[in-house]
Design goal:
The chain is mainly β. It folds into three domains: 14-159, Glucose Permease (Domain IIA) (Distorted Sandwich); 189-293, Sandwich (Immunoglobulin-like), CATH 2.60.40.10; 312-416, Immunoglobulins (Immunoglobulin-like). 2% of the residues lie in helices and 41% in strands. It has two helices and 26 strands. The chain has helices at 22-25, 63-66, and strands at 14-16, 36-38, 45-47, 52-59, 81-89, 92-104, 111-112, 117-121, 132-138, 153-154, 189-194, 201-203, 208-217, 228-234, 242-244, 253-261, 267-276, 282-293, 312-316, 324-326, 330-338, 350-353, 365-366, 375-383, 389-398, 404-416. The strands form five sheets. Strands 1, 2, 3, 4, 5, 6, 7, 8, 9 and 10 form a ten-stranded antiparallel sheet that branches. The longest helix is centred in the N-terminal third of the chain and has 4 residues, at 22-25. It is globular, with a radius of gyration of 23 Å. Mean pLDDT is 84; it is low at 169-184.
Length: 418
């Protein structure tokens, strides 16, 4: 059976297609965009598109941005953190590449199934916002004239199954049978905040404390009997190594609390915990306890932080990167954000341009109503400048007292004549 690719993210949307914007990629020796940019969230789960074997895991982080723009070697780090999986089929050898990741959950040599969690999304490398870059290579394709791109890069989209589809079979002769598509029976968790005991809290040896995290069930399964939080590594801080997860339906935000005791060891101690389903399979990022143990100067256990405003950037929903736009045309820029604070957004909460912004004549726009942990879309409407050139606009949230808070939201556009 020909190669089939299941959807690698939890969002069924492509933000940039194969061969688009050749003007952006010629400096890297390409004819245009060499893959697909797929919408996802920061720390969103990334899944293998097909059965195969992990050929390479590279954790280059942001080396691309740290090297001088004149250094030709920087293009070797453009993908940031990446995973490459080889798929052997009767019609040839394929490789899928998953780029700009936050972290990898597999190592070279692992056999993986279609739909298996392999990493978390971010914007490392040559990236201006969180997304998954997916490339597909077919050995010998460039020499055979099957693609206009070099390095055997072909268009993944014809092989990509509709969002949520279960594959019949990957046909890979060197890997197990395919798993269901990632949107079916998916366990997932997103960390939001430390409610108590923030990192580097000072706690005297032997003092009991309760660690609480705020998380969201970002999967498609309900956390129920058998779902647990398990100790995975670091310093044990109590006799129990497993606690039940609170009941949570998909989309619910809940708090996980576990009783612990500062151990006799002094200094900086770390304890890592991971969620697991009823079958014992781990999912989601590590939840950590980081404390400073001091026996000579006992201090009270820190209380939850006072109410605070917060906004976290999740992704660009349109006009990502540096798109070419026409002069003097209406434009609506949309970002996806999360209320990452402990206060609800309501009347008087706005998104305002930062002083010094070349487009700062635009008035503030109201933020949507959002409770702590909620994700929302925020947008601005503007008329693109009349003069050709590259423009960057920066925006930040402000509370009713006019105080700025949260991540800066930015947009870069190049105005030209099209």
């Amino acid at each position: 059976m020909p190669l089939q690719l299941v959807w690698p993210t939890q969002v069924g949307k492509i933000s940039q297609h194969f061969m688009e914007h050749p003007e952006w990629y010629t400096s890297g020796g390409l004819k245009g965009h060499e893959g697909l940019d797929i919408v996802t969230k920061t720390a969103g789960e990334i899944y293998a598109c097909a059965d195969g074997v992990v050929a390479e895991v590279r954790l280059d982080g942001d080396t691309f941005r740290q090297l001088p723009t004149t250094d030709p070697k920087r293009w070797g780090f453009a993908y940031g953190n990446q995973i490459r999986i080889t798929h052997l089929l009767p019609e040839g050898e394929y490789t899928t590449v998953y780029a700009h990741l936050l972290e990898a959950r597999v190592v070279a040599g692992d056999r993986v199934k279609a739909g298996q969690l392999i990493g978390l999304a971010d914007n490392t490398g040559n990236s201006t916002g969180t997304h998954l870059h997916l490339s597909l290579k077919k050995k010998g394709a460039s020499d055979a004239g099957e693609t206009p791109q070099p390095r055997d890069l072909i268009d993944p989209e014809p092989f990509l199954l509709p969002f949520g589809t279960v594959p019949e079979s990957s046909g890979d002769t060197g890997a197990p049978a395919p798993a269901p598509a990632p949107t079916i029976g998916l366990d997932a968790l997103r960390y939001l905040a430390d409610v108590t005991i923030p990192d580097n809290s000072e706690i005297p040896s032997g003092q009991p404390f309760t660690k609480t995290w705020r998380v969201t069930n970002t999967g498609t399964t309900t956390w129920a009997n058998g779902f647990t939080l398990r100790f995975t590594s670091g310093n044990p801080m109590g006799p129990n190594t497993s606690f039940p997860l609170p009941a949570a339906k998909p989309g619910d935000t809940v708090e996980i609390s576990i009783p612990q005791t500062a151990p006799p060891s002094l200094g900086k101690l770390v304890s890592k915990w991971t969620a697991a389903n009823a079958q014992g399979q781990s999912f989601g990022p590590n939840l950590s306890i980081v404390i400073l143990v001091d026996e000579t100067h006992p201090k009270p256990v820190p209380l939850p932080a006072a109410a605070a405003d917060g906004l976290r950037f999740i992704g660009d929903l349109n006009f990502a990167g540096n798109p070419l736009v026409m002069a003097a045309q209406p434009l609506r820029k949309i970002w996806r954000v999360q209320n990452a604070g402990s206060t609800a957004w309501g009347a008087g909460y706005v998104l305002a341009s930062i002083p010094g912004d070349p487009l700062n004549a635009l008035p503030p726009v109201p933020l949507p109503a959002a409770n702590p942990g909620d994700e929302e879309e925020v947008s601005i409407e503007m008329l693109t400048p009349f003069k050709p050139g590259t423009y960057q606009s920066k925006w930040q949230a402000r509370n009713p007292q006019g105080q700025p808070f949260g991540d800066v939201l930015s947009m870069v556009i190049t105005v030209g004549i099209m």
